[in-house]
Amino acid sequence: MSGLRLTEGSRGLAASVAVEGAPLTRTQVPYVTGSSVLGMKCADGVVIACDTMASYGTLARFKSLSRMHQVSPNCILGVGGDYSDFQQLQTMVDAEMTAQYVANDGLTLSPKAIHSFLARHMYHRRCKVDPLWNTVIVAGFDKGEGVLSLVDLFGTAFSSDVLATGFGLHLGLPLLRNAHRPDITVAEAKGVLEDILKVLFYRDARTNDVVQLASVTAAGVEIGKMTKLKTEWGYKSFVEGARVGDDSSW
Amino acid sequence: MTSIGTGYDLSTTTYSPDGRVFQIEYAQKAIENSGTAIGVSCKDGVVMAVEKVVVSKMLVPGTMRRAHLVDHHSGVVISGLISDGRQLATRARDECSSYKSVYDSPIPGHVLAERLANFAHVYTLYAYVRPFGCAALLGAHDDINGYQLYLVEPSGVSYRYFGAAVGKGKQAAKTALEKLDFKTLTCREAVKELAKIIVDVHDETKDKLYELEMCWVCEESKNKSQLVPQDLVDEARKAAEAAQDDDSDMDDDE
């Protein structure tokens, strides 16, 4: 769970409660949270992956929630952080896409534009000290090229060949960097991402083993079914502990 | 007070002695001066067409549209003042998005029609506003009621129709619409029929140039609102014009 706190305060005070003499505070703590999202840009498209759990604090509250959202025929989001804020983001982005549809002027929002739209909104909210508690990965395919960008709750926005959020930032990103090649294919990258999801499932307690992979290529968006990871718990170091004698399991 | 009028026609807040609100009737007159708009609700969808009189040869084709999409599943075509119509279309879009944000489902056709009619009605209640100088044909699809066609008038009424016509040529258009069999008519056929009606009621002597705009929500468009593809419209219009030429040739022979 994202442990970031902008101010000290108990959960009871978190939601828009004016305490006598204290400045008004808004939601400063996420409640139901999703963990990591991974992304890799490939020669023929982009792949993103995430698990399907939403935790209520440390409780594994929801175990088959999709954390992906298709925005347009060539753009999807993968979102970690507060799940209700993610739903709010979906509503917002969908409304924007509807406005584009009814304008009927032949123009569509590119993945880059969608990323910018989200970044503007996230930055706006952070400036109101009322952020949407998410890290969003935008994956798209435009003009023959993959687009892989990120925006976080501060409105920080950038693009990269490999991206990871949440716990994946620590455990997944080095693996992603090692595995990435400019000529890596979508099919190959899916395997890599699945392996990293497995690593995350072993080590990140806010993760489950039901995962979703999605790709955006010239053929469009393909959001895969939720699938169960094949895991192996019989490794010697898992069973006996890596450093026998010091009571550690790693 | 000038010599014309009886003093009961300046405000919507005053009835005439025989119970009429003249400003609303004048608003309807504004529509009767405008290009004809017609719509049909048929077997596999709803199709609307409007004759857009072109005010100058130098206008870029497609500018100042009279057919507007308001949501993924609904669209309006406007007869009357273009700018008033745009206001109605914008309001319709707002209603669609607000319904969606509250109920997380697309607004049903009858709700949208009622809300639009309420909006128009408010403009008949106060002395400091004028009623809308336009009528909107609203085509929509929802899972419960299927394809629907409504006509929203400046008086604030809206009715659901199988076939409706407003504007300059509405009388002739209505007569032509009554001959159609809405139960068996498909949208593809309706496009041709509507083009034919618009071409027939178009008054060549008064407005030479006009564009034909069409909008549909149908099975073919996967229940999405769409401007009817331009090639279909052009084809239908060309066929209608050719048929009309043939007819007039025959008339000449007689």
UniProtKB/TrEMBL annotation, chain A:
One of its GO terms (cellular component) is nucleus. Gene3D superfamilies: Glutamine Phosphoribosylpyrophosphate, subunit 1, domain 1. PROSITE patterns: PROTEASOME_BETA_1, PROTEASOME_BETA_2. The keyword Nucleus applies. It comes from the Eukaryota. It is found in: Cytoplasm; Nucleus. Its main location: cytoplasm. GO terms for biological process: proteolysis involved in protein catabolic process. The keyword Phosphoprotein does not apply. Keywords: Cytoplasm, Nucleus, Proteasome. Non-catalytic component of the proteasome. Belongs to the peptidase T1B family. This is Proteasome subunit beta. It comes from Porphyra umbilicalis (Purple laver).
TrEMBL record, chain B:
The keyword Acetylation does not apply. Residues 243-254 have a biased composition (Acidic residues). It is found in: Cytoplasm; Nucleus. Residues 8-30 form the Proteasome alpha-type subunits domain. It holds the Pfam family Proteasome_A_N. The proteasome is a multicatalytic proteinase complex which is characterized by its ability to cleave peptides with Arg, Phe, Tyr, Leu, and Glu adjacent to the leaving group at neutral or slightly basic pH. The proteasome has an ATP-dependent proteolytic activity. Belongs to the peptidase T1A family. The 26S proteasome consists of a 20S proteasome core and two 19S regulatory subunits. This is Proteasome subunit alpha type. The lineage of its organism: Eukaryota, Rhodophyta, Bangiophyceae, Bangiales, Bangiaceae.
